[in-house]
Amino acid sequence: MSSSSAPQPDVPKRVLFVVTAADYWTLKDGTRHPSGYWGEELAMPHKLFSEAGWDITLATPGGQAPTLDRLSMNWTAGTLNKRNEIADYLLSIKPQLDHPSTLDTVNPDDYDLVFYPGGHGPMEDLAYDEVSGALLAHRLESGKPLALLCHAPAAALAAKKPDGSWPFKGYKMTGLSNTEERLNTFGWKAKWYLEDRLRKEGADYQKGALPLRPFVVVDRNLYTGQNPASSEQLAKRLIADLG
């Protein structure tokens, strides 16, 4: 007499968050503008993925605890209720933020999703980080989901194929626009603009009709969000597609 096997419990999705370790952004006049990761861009996707039952690992270059950009918590960054929600959530995951994995010790193939939140920090470190660049090139080639939010597509600039070409060339993608960058008073002092660099390298850069509004682009396994306001829309799209 045959018997059917018991149903197996669903295995939770695994997500790797790659977060900047930079705590400043060097402007073209040489000044170091205090920076780091943008609160909403880490907190809200992390919260939504956690609520979906997904397991999350944080990793940074050198395993350094990431720095919250204080500007991401001021009055220009959203309503008081929203900022309080973000602050409370970041506090709830403080042990994880304080003890991230070291980026060069993680294997992206172990994860269902690789997710890069933004902030100006990636313009300082991940845009030039060879370990991150190799991870991104491998991940894109693998066909497994990869998501980059706001300034995080700057990290893609460090990616190279074995022949030296840019693996993201021809991909539809978004990221913080020139217009949005210039809304920051210090944005006018940037050494370079993300939109310009993505276009120059050969990305099919796209942006929403209005600045500071949610806008998400999906091309094959690459998911990108334009700005902080895109954080939740990007996360919800990923949950729907990977669920």
Summarize the structure.
With 243 residues, the chain is α/β, with parallel strands linked by helices.
List keywords for this structure.
globular; Rossmann fold; 30% helix; 243 residues; DJ-1/PfpI; Prot/Nucl_acid_deglycase; seven-stranded mixed β-sheet; single chain; Protein/nucleic acid deglycase HchA
Description of the molecule:
This protein is α/β, with parallel strands linked by helices. It is 30% helix and 16% strand. The protein has a single domain, classed as 3-Layer(aba) Sandwich (Rossmann fold), CATH 3.40.50.880. The strands form 3 sheets. Strands 5-4-1-6-7-11-10 form a 7-stranded mixed beta sheet, with helices on both faces. It has a two-stranded antiparallel sheet with strand order 2-3. α1 (39-51) packs parallel to α8. It starts with 13 loop residues before the first strand and ends with a helix. The radius of gyration is 18 Å and the shape is globular. Pfam families: DJ-1_PfpI. It comes from Deinococcus carri.
